[in-house]
Each structure stands twice: as C-alpha cells, then as structure tokens.
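Researcher: Re-running this chain for the archive, since the previous output was lost when a drive failed. Same request as before.
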Amino acid sequence: MQLVGDIIKPRDIYGVNADDTVRQAVHYLCERKTGAVAVRSGDEVVGIFSERDLMHRVVNAGLNPDTTKVSEVMTPDVLSIHADEDIRMAKAIMFKNKVRHLLVVGRGDQLKGLISMRDIMDADMADSAELIQKLNDEYYEKAYRSKWRVSSNRVIVEPYISQ
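Model: Regenerated structure tokens:
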C-alpha cells in the first residue's frame, strides 16, 4: 500500500496569491515546471490554478492575463485528501469528481502539497515495473527457446518460433 504522503514527500509546496495576475501565476508555473499550484488568500487555501484553468478560463475566454486576477479564474471548489490515505483513494476521488489535482493535507488540515493524476500514474508504473520486467523476461525466454528434435542418429536444433 502506497500512501499519498509518500508520493509528495520530497516536494516544495507551490502556491500563488489570489491577488496575483494570471501572467505572474503562469510565470511561476513555468519557473517551477509544474502544471498546478495552490491559490492562497492570506494563510487560507482558496483554490487551485492549473494549466487547464489558463486554457479554458483565460485564453479561450479572451481575458487579458496582465489584468486578470488568479482569483477570477481559479478552480475554487478544491477537493483534498489526507497524506495518510492510500493512493488508490486519491485515484478514486479524482475519477469520481473528474479532477486532475487534489490538495494534500496533514494533521490539522495543514497543507502538505498537491497530488496530480500524473503523480499517481507514475507511482502505478513504478509499482508495476518489476512485474513488467518479469513478464518481458518470460516472453522473450519462450520466444527464443530452441526446439530440439532427434532425427535418426543426430540431434537437430531449430529456433523456437512462437505462434
């Protein structure tokens, strides 16, 4: 069982101010090579701003990123998950609610970071890497296994061709 907190452990918590402009937030996202950030108003998290918000609510709507505030275009109804939850629970919450990011909280609902669908996919792939390697080894072992047959007084080795 892999926990949400294990996935986000080594990261900094990225966040922007609700009063920042979209241009400032995009610059922040690009500098940190991330797709979403928590939006804060004082000490409180009031939303998430993501690349998807930028595309749908700013670019597609024709808004000016230099004058539009993040608070006007962020996703305000933020879902969260506790750091001690299994990542399968995070996946289920995202799937059910059709979202790609969740806030991760710890004791006392203290913000620990964000988890994305990409993070969960990476964790799933890492967990599956050993199984995938074993399946590949077994496949290639069978695919290239030689076939022996005896013909009168000699042994003939033919390549095994899987069909």
